[in-house]
Design brief:
This protein is α/β, with parallel strands linked by helices. The protein has helices at about 5-15, 30-35, 40-65, 80-105, 120-135, 150-165, 175-180, 230-240; strands spanning about 25, 65-75, 110-115, 140-150, 195, 215-220. It has a six-stranded parallel sheet, sandwiched between helices. α3 packs parallel to α4 (about 80-105) and α4 (about 80-105) runs parallel beside α5 (about 120-135). It is globular. The structure holds 3-methylbut-3-enyl trihydrogen diphosphate (IPE) (2 copies) and magnesium ion. One 3-methylbut-3-enyl trihydrogen diphosphate binds near residues 30, 31, 32, 88 and 224.
């Protein structure tokens, strides 16, 4: 990032750079309704949503977030019509192919949260390639939550821990919150400080159940394809107006 961009952002964004969230997570919702409102098929909404993904990733990087997590496909989303699921997977492949140069330029590392093996083979290959190529990038982590479920994440952690205990490699008494969190997909990352959901729904939909215990929630009626830079900045400014107490 050039200093010119960072200065401009400082002046125009109204953000306090000393109080930025480290990790922002977004439930990107409302693609289908956005399309429906325009008399378009749902898949056009998903296509339009990719633009918002780019904008969000770019702004997160400019502002200086450490981690941006985007909920792209839940374990429950397999229940959708097969045609919609396959279009989503195709769009994901397309995004990965097109986005790689930008991720490299901006030094962003791509990471996946979710059941990787349960994704289609072609998607796995695309992801593996991008994760490998961006693996050394250190400016920001972009987590894509794919085939992700908060409950199944906790269950897979519990299973692995139980195996270690059974094998005598871990004492039950040494298990605490810090150790448990190391078995989650987000191991080593700070918990989200801010959770954004678009489309006016007021629910979590099985997203990051463990990690959001003290996240600030920001709910906006805007549909994901219309969530732009100004909207993201407003969410960040709203976050900075909040008083976080953590129970104290
Ligand atoms: C979010 O938009 C994208 C995914 C869940 C993949 P939706 O497809 O859920 O759109 P709505 O909520 O039906 O409008
Ligand atoms: C949550 O949105 C999942 C993603 C954004 C990927 P959904 O549209 O699937 O959630 P519900 O069905 O409204 O709870
Ligand atoms: Mg939805």
């Amino acid at each position: 990032m050039s200093t010119a961009i960072s200065e401009q952002l400082d002046a125009s964004s109204g953000l306090d750079r000393t109080r930025l969230p480290r990790h922002v997570a977004i439930i990107m919702d409302g693609n289908g309704r956005w399309a429906h409102g325009r008399g378009l098929p749902r898949v056009m909404g998903h296509r339009a949503g990719i633009k918002s993904v780019r904008i969000a990733a770019e702004l997160a990087r400019e502002v200086g977030l450490e981690v941006l997590t985007l909920y792209a496909f839940s374990v429950e989303n397999w229940k959708r019509p097969a045609a919609e699921v396959s279009t989503l997977m195709r769009l994901l492949n397309e995004y990965l192919r097109r986005e790689l140069p930008t991720l490299m330029k901006n030094e962003i590392r791509l990471n996946v949260l979710g059941d990787f093996e349960g994704l289609p083979a072609l998607v796995q290959r695309h992801l593996e390639r991008v994760m490998k190529e961006t693996g050394e990038n250190r400016k920001m982590v972009l987590n894509l939550a794919l085939n992700y479920g908060g409950r199944s994440e906790i269950v897979q952690a519990a299973r692995r821990i139980a195996e270690l205990v059974k094998a005598g490699k871990l004492k039950v008494t040494s298990l605490d919150e810090e150790l448990f969190s190391r078995f989650l997909y987000t191991a080593g990352q700070p918990d989200p400080d801010l959770l954004i959901r678009t489309s006016g729904e007021h629910r979590i939909s099985n997203f990051l159940l463990w990690q959001i215990s003290y996240a600030e929630l920001y709910l906006t009626p805007k549909f994901w394809p219309e969530f732009g830079k100004a909207d993201f900045l407003e969410a960040l400014r709203e976050y900075q107006r909040r008083e976080r107490r953590f129970g104290a």
